[in-house]
Amino acid sequence: MKIEVFEIPEEGLNIELEETPKIDGVKITQPFKAVLRIEKNGQEVFVKGVISGEVELQCSRCLKDYKMPIRSLTELSYHPIEELNKEELVELKRDEMEVDFYREGLIDTEDIIRDQILLSIPMKPLCSEDCKGICPVCGTDLNEINCGCIVKEIDPRMAVLQSLLRRMKKNG
After folding, report:
1. pTM of whole model > 0.90?
2. CA neighbours within 13 Å on the CB side: how many for 103?
3. Distance separating alpha carbons of residues 136 and 29, to the nearest angstrom
4. DSSP assignment, residue 124?
5. H-assigned helices in 16-129
6. Residue 94 pLDDT > 60, yes or no?
7. Which of 65, 67, 120, 127 has the highest Cβ tally under 10 A?
8. If DSSP codes are grouped into helix, strand and coil, which group holds residue 167?
9. Band of pLDDT at residue 133, cut at 50, 70 and 90
10. 148-172 b/e (C-beta count within 10 Å ≥ 16 → b)
11. pLDDT at 88
């Protein structure tokens, strides 16, 4: 849904919508619902609300797919893109991270929902905090059965030396 900034009434706007944005690498299993309050002060637009839905992710330890509910509180401030000085590099402060820009007087709610989904997905998704993962030797899912393989843990700082030692033994 696209919102025309000049059509936002003085008293603000309440919007409830349901969208399923297309995001590469993310499978949405339940459409996302958004309840948004939109207010305008001059050319600045404030968007506040709740976005909720569900995505399917792959656990980074056991590689199984699992569903993750997302509920994100959002508070954004929009300015016209013309305010952005493209010539000047500006370091954003912490309180400016929730600022975005709109073009041609339009704010796209699908962009808001997409951004909130991407920000809610963990960098290393886990099906559960205590997921044991898979055995590095035989590939058995350690959440289901203990395979009994012996895993020799090597200090990562020494791994380079171990590979050097192997090469030295190989070359005589």
Report:
1. no
2. 1
3. 31
4. S
5. 109-120
6. no
7. 127
8. helix
9. very high
10. eeeeeeeeeeeeeeeeeeeeeeeee
11. 63
